[in-house]
């Protein structure tokens, strides 16, 4: 009888382990690890893409209006693919701010001309200053910033039409 | 027009392969329990059909990559028209969907060969084995079709160009490392199927063990090479000079390797002595289960890792269900049926049997240690006890001493006899080897010209304690032959395989001990004209240039290296690359490899004013790490070529093989 129980031990161990693994599935490490969540949007002082003379800083994002901040670059094919979705979001009345990342002014403006411009304004960040503060590791990335300028949601990579419906819009509603 | 249909053909082929797999898993098993030869005979053709159609699907995906068909989502996300053709070819398995397809292809392949080279086994055993393999295939094909379709299209807005392959993966390492690793993981499915078949059939004899051993050795050899390649790749590609990070995914590959190693040794006892049967079965089940667990950990996103694929909870859930069914059912069958096959054979506490048992227990303890460290963050998080990650200190503190203890027994194992060993004989044969290992190991660290280090000494003593007794044993084995050469020729290939495998372990231990403790690293700011001295070498930056690659731009430093007291010098060219399509920066390390040391130069950050943060490293004996891995794998393969297995592999004609099979059954 004790031998029987001994033989059942591996099964019991495995069942306990799978319970934990099941629990683990609902804990997404990407959500856990986003260090900027619920923090202030980092401070910066950069020119805009549209007008080199115009400097913008954090006050751009604490205007009492919810803002989606999208990091993009002319060199990034995924950014081109997600432009229709971004234009759609802007048509829905959501305020959009772009960060033209690691690009030249000329190429960035050309990109907006070709693929449309959903952004109220674009922050020009050719040297990854703001990108570094935000912890951006690849374009595109999108941050949802609430009325007080606090980061509430972070989307890494391409935003598909499905992502708009399932993630972006619900989050916008939640923090409105 | 037909070219455009390639992805659909591939998708359809996968569906057909699934149907083959379902038939393969049901009919032979039913046939085996009803004793109906006709149903059992379905096993081989179904396995062949399944392999054919999975191969067609795989070829279709590869074709989509080679032809730059960016209407396929998978290709658009992971390839680019500028990518060289060989990276397009290997990009197929550089992503989640494609790599699962490769998994399935290999699974079908192993299944087919297991079915094909099993003619001398009893029909019902073959039927059960092939059927179990079929079930595993069903699981994976369903996984692909339901959650991870690699042939998904993006229509009608087909992108102009692909997003490019992750630059980290654009390397010879990617071409070699995943296939070798998967071959190992998947290869253990064969011995797993054998274990389940033995439990279902209630029969486990020496013939069974002899048959399972080559498959186990081969899978283990692949896994060993895969792990070694992964470590080598991380070493030169990530730019930190580390070779093992105790990353969850690395651990996921180490776990089945550890139990697989235990399994090889346990199988030896089962074949020679007819004992350890429950152990062998449990290890066979555990090894494949841990391979599946590794898959779960990588693809479900429950743990953060540099290897993680795109996360999708639905995939994770599917694999967990798959894991639950496969492992849960197997362990249940094990608990219910193991008493039927087990068989007690007595042995003395000083015997090869006992030493192999200790080896198994040690390996299992190490496995549990690594497993606990890997899932510990998950346990804490699930129990809401906070977020902690268990780092290298935990693993090193436990893994290193446990390994040393195991190696003490490893030195004794090959010299000891089965069943019972005379203590005086053992002492007489080993005192010299032990004393030599101790003295040489203690003195050697002085010769390196650096300060004496206890860990290096322990490492060297351990390594020599493994090697010297084997040499002594070889000496004793050939003593009675007319000439030494004749004696050496009579030694079996399986024995040489064992020797080589153990030598590999010793070589790896030397590499680990020396490079971990005598590694020298300098982080310096360098501009043209600056120089730095590291371990007797002078590194001078002569110029900073830039160049353009096929799909990247690079800053490049030219470093002139001169050894002190030598006139000759050579240049090293580290680079910092920017991959255009993804805008991703990458460090391209400059390496000067050598048998006794590597020189390693990597570019860090651009510090402005024409200078860079440079990382210069001197890594003694680092090559030995991977050399040891290759020796181990070679040992595993060499053992497979032993005469007593070769007869099995060459007898393809069932009639011719039958007489050979009969007596074995009779003796069982």
From TrEMBL, chain A:
Xref: InterPro entries: Periplasmic_diS_OxRdtase_DsbE, Redoxin, Thioredoxin-like_sf, Thioredoxin_domain, Thioredoxin_ResA/DsbE_sf
Keyword Nucleotide-binding: no
Keywords (A to Z) from UniProt: Cytochrome c-type biogenesis, Disulfide bond, Redox-active center
Top-level taxon of the source organism: Bacteria
Record's subcellular location: Cell inner membrane
Coiled-coil blocks: none
Topology in the lipid bilayer: Single-pass membrane protein
Main location: membrane
Domain Thioredoxin: 35-173
NCBIfam families assigned: dsbE
Family membership noted in the UniProt record: Belongs to the thioredoxin family. DsbE subfamily.
Name of the protein described by the UniProt record: DsbE family thiol:disulfide interchange protein
Source organism of this protein record: Billgrantia campisalis
